[in-house]
Amino acid sequence: MQGDAAEEQACRHLDRSGFTIVERNYRTKGGEIDIVARKGDVLVFVEVRSRVDADFGMPEESVTPAKRRRIVVAARQYLSDVPPSSWREARFDVIAIEGSGDDAVLRHYPAAFDAKGKVL
Do 32 and 25 contact (CB within 8 A), yes or no? Predict the structure, then answer.
């Protein structure tokens, strides 16, 4: 599944789950966040990974420690740009999409890692 299509599918999933999409493809010098979403006063930084097949492992396995660190750097920048009163909590989710089309399987991992990049 192409990256843009995977992000669209992830946004639809988040929307159906009660999230509001705040921003997509937020970029800073140090990293990028695929989706910034909000549910109540919780900001969620979402990394979307997809694979058409499992020949190279599961998509969620490709969120490496280095990738997590870059996401955290970008999230810190994002948080410094929004009023502190606009959020109470922030977390890092991963959405993995395996396959394509109607056969695609979506797995959502809320709070997949912490601000130090450690897998929870």
Answer: yes
Is the pLDDT score of 1 beyond 50? no
Contact 97, 9 (CB under 8 A): yes
User: Quick one: pLDDT at residue 120?
Assistant: 63
Q: Is the pTM of this model over 0.90?
A: yes
The predicted-structure confidence for 21-52, as pLDDT tens digits, reads as follows 999 999 999 899 999 999 999 999 999 999 98
Q: Per residue in 2-32, is it b (16+ CB within 10 Å) or e — as a string?
A: eeeebbebbbebbeeeebebbebebebeebe
Listed by start position, the domains of the chain span 3-106
Cross-strand pairs, 23: 36
Q: CB of 46 within 8 A of CB of 95? A: yes
Euclidean distance between CA atoms 68 and 42, whole angstroms: 19
* 3-106 under CATH 3.40.1350.10, yes or no: yes
